[in-house]
Specification:
CATH class: Mainly Alpha
Order of helices and strands: HHHHEEHHHHHHHHHHHH
CATH architecture: Orthogonal Bundle
Number of domains: 1
Distance between the termini: 19 Å
Shape: globular
Number of helices: 16
Length: 323
């Protein structure tokens, strides 16, 4: 998509402009490392897209967009430490290369640098954006804690899972769009509608992430295959499998999810139950459901349909990732 390429170029140039040259290098070079391997940089692009939707000044939105990108990478560094993940975006993770202490410090510094990118905004807009940004950060931490809790909690419900992924993933996409809208001067109703569009697209994106963890192409996905099964994460695949499994299959799932092990038999056995209960089809249906809810919010926004088209294309692109 040409519009996506154009936004990616804007973000890439901004990232390059703000490359860290500070000392000590042991702190800042790992920060440059993860930012330089920034993937598709979708969340800062969401800020710019929303700003454009409401005829904002894109130059005014660039630094807040970088704030979102820096914040997102801060969460990835710490997430990788907690998950003991060896690779991210097909590259070794920071704690794998430099140790856990450097990983924690580099992540903390990225978070602080993210806040500084809002400093140029006028006072009222600064307060509004920081309010959204800080609330997002707190919800994301809550979502991460729920995710950790679920590894050892037996009675995780589907609603628990949706709340967790909303906080962990959906809220950052939602807030990226909302901050872009606020910077462009959108009214309250439109800013909330684009927020809700982003929330449901973010939920769908995370469900797709869970799907690809098991059913995706590992090389294209850029993560360890079936990492969620290794970590006993009670994703939508697990919940759907448990709902549709036989009593014997549920007992087998309970057995394997009571052990945190690299045993390949665990992966093979759990995947076999996933396939027998057809959770792949059920998960793809759920992804489409949240995509449609998000599109419904997009329709409510009071701008010409031509301005909404890139958002529809982005949503479809995100949910057609390689599998």
């Amino acid at each position: 998509m040409q519009f996506l390429d154009e936004y990616q170029e804007i973000v890439a140039k901004a990232v390059e402009r703000y490359t860290f040259k500070d000392k000590p290098a042991e702190l800042y070079e790992p920060m440059n490392y993860i930012i330089s391997h920034g993937g598709k940089r979708l969340r800062p692009i969401m800020v710019l897209m929303a700003s454009d939707m409401f005829d904002g000044d894109i130059q005014k939105a660039i630094k807040p967009a970088l704030a979102i990108e820096f914040f997102h990478n801060f969460t990835l560094i710490h997430d990788d430490i907690m998950d003991e993940a060896p690779i991210r975006r097909n590259k070794p993770t920071i704690h794998t290369l430099h140790g856990i202490n450097v990983g924690i410090l580099s992540g903390d510094a990225l978070l602080i640098k993210a806040y500084k990118f809002f400093e140029d905004l006028e006072p009222e807009l600064f307060k509004a954006c920081i309010r959204v940004f800080t609330h997002t950060g707190l919800l994301l931490c809550e979502g991460q804690q729920y995710d950790i809790n679920f590894e050892t909690r037996e009675n995780v419900t589907f609603d628990d899972y949706i709340r967790m992924i909303t906080y962990k993933t959906g809220i950052l996409s939602a807030s990226s769009f909302e901050i872009g809208a606020l910077i462009a001067g959108a009214n309250f109703a439109d800013a909330k509608a684009i927020f809700n569009f982003g929330k449901h697209i973010g939920i769908a994106f995370q469900i797709m992430d869970d799907y690809l963890d098991v059913f995706g192409n590992q090389e294209q996905f850029g993560k360890k295959h079936a990492g969620d099964i290794y970590e006993n994460k009670k994703t939508v695949l697990y919940l759907l499998a448990r709902e549709h499994a036989t009593d014997e299959e549920r007992k087998e799932l309970d057995y394997w999810y009571s052990k945190k092990t690299d045993n390949v038999d665990k992966i093979y056995s759990v995947e076999k139950i996933f396939r027998r209960t057809r959770v792949d089809e059920k998960t793809l249906h759920l992804i489409q459901k949240h995509n449609e809810i998000g599109q419904g919010y997009l329709k409510q926004i009071n701008v010409p349909d031509a301005k909404k088209k890139p958002f529809i294309e982005l949503a479809n692109y995100l949910l057609r990732r390689e599998s």
